[in-house]
Protein: Anhydro-N-acetylmuramic acid kinase
Amino acid sequence: MSGTSMDGIDIAHLRSDGETIAERGPFLFAPYSPDFRKKLAASLDTAKSIEERSQRPGDLADIEKELTDLHANAVARFMNEYDLKADDIDLIGFHGQTVLHRPGAGMTVQLGDGQALASKTGVPVIYDMRAADMIAGGEGAPLAPAYHGALARGLGGEWPVAFVNIGGISNITCVAKDSGLVAFDTGPGNTLIDQWVEMKAGIPFDQGGAIASEGGVLRDLLDHYLKAEFFHAEKRRSLDRNDFLPPDPSAASLEDGARSLARLTAEAIFTSAAHLPEQPKQWIICGGGRQNIVIMNDLEELAEKTSASVFRAEDLGLNGDSMEAEAWAFLAIRSRKGLPLSWPETTGCREPVSGGILAEP
Ligand SMILES: Nc1ncnc2c1ncn2[C@@H]1O[C@H](COP(=O)(O)OP(=O)(O)OP(=O)(O)O)[C@@H](O)[C@H]1O
Ligand SMILES: CC(=O)N[C@H]1[C@@H]2OC[C@@H](O2)[C@@H](O)[C@@H]1O[C@H](C)C(=O)O
Structure:
């Protein structure tokens, strides 16, 4: 799995029948080099000219090849580190890198050559898992909810339970005790914070929220984002990384900007969650944003108003870094068995729909 923050490749090993989780295995993160991150960032602009999803304008074909090779190398490292052979792995779930996501136009593009990954690793690969959902009228995202639902069944405590993934973009899955899942993207996660600290100080992210904790919230800056139609529209929709852009560098000091954008991440989650049929009693936070103490404190403050509790995934024995990669393994198994990856309540598709393409080595 390589997410919208474009920081690297997450690899997780999962044993499951696509319904329940038998075992969560080891995890490895293979970071991209600063050079490759730059290439990926530039590829988002190049991808804007794509009119048909198989097109690879400019250097996108080269980047796709490099990305696939990096994934194959990361899989080899993972197998070596954990003493696994190709025969020990039934399937690889391959997300690829989203470079364009336009649900309104029914188009989502992930770079990544599933066939080449299967040939290089010697393991069957399931890839392109978002496309079928879009053909069925869905947003193409989020897809992790199927896995959040399976994880929730193993938890105790009060219901409903919400899983919030704070990655580049944030998304929520709300699981009620006796009914299905409701899920949607909630707004900016870490991307704006990453872009802001990069722009102002040349650093890739605000480690631990240290910069934000030195700043103050600029309410006007925050309200400008929260006024966006995305938060108030009747219909929930999925986000492209470029749907929200960072503030102008002159808009704030480094610290106040980081503080305000951290607050935005937290308030965006609660503003979007107001569209849920029922408010969660437990909030489980995963994704890199859970490491930002300022975001976490803001979430706790906002949850207190509804007498709900906020947990880091680790508090409940889960792994907030590997969860998305585990989800892609789980989805690959479901795809192989023809089980749904998405439902009307998770992506807005017309009926439950499976998806993904199988590539044999
Ligand atoms: N120690 C940390 N302190 C603060 N922020 C962190 C820390 N570690 C990671 N992050 C943030 O988390 C981001 C990566 O999160 P994650 O890997 O969950 O995103 P992703 O999976 O790429 O995105 P998405 O879920 O949107 O697809 C980084 O870009 C950074 O902003
Ligand atoms: C198009 C796309 O890649 N969307 C990502 C992105 O990152 C978070 C959020 O936006 C979510 O909708 C999705 O990823 C997660 C893993 C998902 O589909 O569940």
Summary: The mean pLDDT is 97. The longest helix spans residues 60-81.
